[in-house]
Amino acid sequence: MKQLPEDLVSIRLTVNGVVRSLDVHPGETLLEVLRGRLRLTGTKRGCEVGECGACTVVLDGRAVNSCLVLAVQADGAEVLTVEGLAREGALHPLQRAFLEHGAVQCGFCTPGMLMSAHALLAQDPSPTPDAVRRAIAGNLCRCTGYQAIVDAVLAAAGEANSS
Amino acid sequence: MIPGVRVARPATIQDALRMRADLGLAGRPLAGGTDLLIELRRRPAPGLTLMDLSRLDDLRGVRAEDGTLWVGALTPHEDVARSALVRERATALASACGEVGSAQVRNRGTLGGNVANASPCADGVTALVALGAEAEVASVRGTRRLLVEDLVERPYRTGLAPDELILAFHVPVQGRGASAFVKLGRRDALAIARINAGCVVEVAEGRVVRCLLAVGSVMPRTQRVREAEDAVTGAPATNDTARQAGDVVARRMVEVSGVRWSTPYKEPAVRAVVARVLLRAMGIREGP
Ligand SMILES: Cc1cc2nc3c(=O)[nH]c(=O)nc-3n(C[C@H](O)[C@H](O)[C@H](O)COP(=O)(O)OP(=O)(O)OC[C@H]3O[C@@H](n4cnc5c(N)ncnc54)[C@H](O)[C@@H]3O)c2cc1C
Ligand code: FES
Ligand code: FES
């Protein structure tokens, strides 16, 4: 990270496996950089105070609210967003499970839910229903009533473990 | 966007302390940002320099020291909650950190930020006060250690000088399961507890031989309630004793703060939280 004139700051981070170098404002959030600069608009902007989870991304292996991380704090880090889940056109098992279990209605919460679930399964490949609920407790959904989402995450975990 | 701020990222503790001394009130330390970034969005402070502490890896982690656990100020809540040492030797702190906000908030928010922010209902603060933990605070002028109970002076106000940083906490170790933490929130996740309690209880031959008890959002500041500790010490480790302690704390609350609009709601809640935390530390299942 080096400080440039006009108070811009150069950062380098890896987003979905691709190294990106950018000059950002010190006060810009990771959410703003992902959506505005990198056009990765799968990550949603909701409350911007850490309460809804719509902006959740995985930062160095952990689910975080990207509205509460400055882009400069992600200098040198590895970021995974919902755009990084599908491989060669094939949906990620979590994404497929969400569709199969009716866990997507309006879809606004879905990217954040997927990233929270992804971080959970990376740490705990066979979570209990309670562990799933705890992992997504910071992701609000106004549509589904959550049960379908919990079922989808458990199903994706089961599938990954049996294959 | 946090308007008008600059960011500095010191690479060593020495650099950070020097920077803090140079900037004084023109700088603010930034740890996980889960309190500070929200505050700066609500109340912009153009010209402010944020000192991002996240490169100070030496201030992250947990290790056993002589009779205490060292917990770095930059350790995120999630890591404190998962640490086997903290779970076994300072159970109240592991539970408190495990109940903060959501996974996303626990992954970023740090114990040092929780204390420095000094919210009246900060979960980490209550647990640290109950455990009799000390904060290690440093500036270019030197290092000092003081009880967390004394550092957090009143809501949103600590005794930190403008050139000081919290480096770590020293938490006296307890026997297995001898400490506990309970909070009453509006919702399971995300609710910033309006009432919380932490305690240490040692029992020998069925009697309480030592008790530390702290409550948050009950008194004007997070503090131990000596009257209740004294009432419990020497008494049998039972349901009744736990309930009596709850009565003592509720009475102290009214004595100290007077009767307020919230008292009819708070009194029974305080009784219940205090009784519950003591029973948990005694290893007794809650009665009917
Ligand atoms: C959605 C949500 C839910 C939450 N739920 C809870 C909850 O249930 N319980 C709870 O207790 N809290 C909760 N919080 C509050 C917050 O997450 C915690 O207080 C957290 O521990 C703050 O730490 P931080 O690292 O994010 O601090 P920051 O926001 O980075 O900093 C907070 C303050 O501390 C100062 N500071 C930080 N580190 C140091 C240091 N080492 N030395 C000196 N000063 C320092 C900063 O300058 C700032 O004034 C919640 C927050 C959100 C957004
Ligand atoms: S937009 Fe980040 S938590 Fe709501
Ligand atoms: S599907 Fe609409 S908010 Fe979750």
What's a quick, concise take on this entry?
By secondary structure, chain A is of the alpha+beta class. Chain A contains five helices and six strands; from the N terminus they run βββαβββαααα. Chain A has helices at 30-37, 93-100, 110-123, 129-135, 147-162, and strands at residues 2-3, 9-15, 18-24, 56-59, 62-65, 78-80.
Which key terms come to mind for this protein?
heterodimer, A: 163 residues, alpha+beta, DNA polymerase, domain 1, 5 helices, 17% strand, globular, B: 288 residues, Uridine Diphospho-n-acetylenolpyruvylglucosamine Reductase, domain 2, 3 domains, 5-stranded antiparallel beta sheet, 4-stranded antiparallel beta sheet, 12 helices, binds FE2/S2 (inorganic) cluster
Q: Which helices and strands occur, and which strands form pairs?
A:
The complex is a heterodimer of chains A (163) and B (288).
Chain A: E1 2-3, E2 9-15, E3 18-24, H1 30-37, E4 56-59, E5 62-65, E6 78-80, H2 93-100, H3 110-123, H4 129-135, H5 147-162
Helix pairs in contact in A: 2-5
Chain B: E1 6-8, H1 13-23, E2 27-30, H2 36-42, E3 49-52, E4 62-65, E5 68-72, H3 77-82, H4 84-89, H5 91-98, H6 103-108, H7 111-117, H8 123-130, E6 134-139, E7 142-147, H9 148-151, E8 152-154, E9 157-158, E10 165-172, E11 179-184, E12 195-204, E13 207-216, E14 223-224, H10 226-232, H11 239-257, H12 263-282
Parallel strand pairs in B: 1-3, 2-3
Antiparallel strand pairs in B: 4-5, 5-10, 6-7, 6-10, 8-9, 11-12, 12-13, 13-14
One FE2/S2 (inorganic) cluster (FES) binds at residues 45-48, 50-55, 65, 67 of chain A.
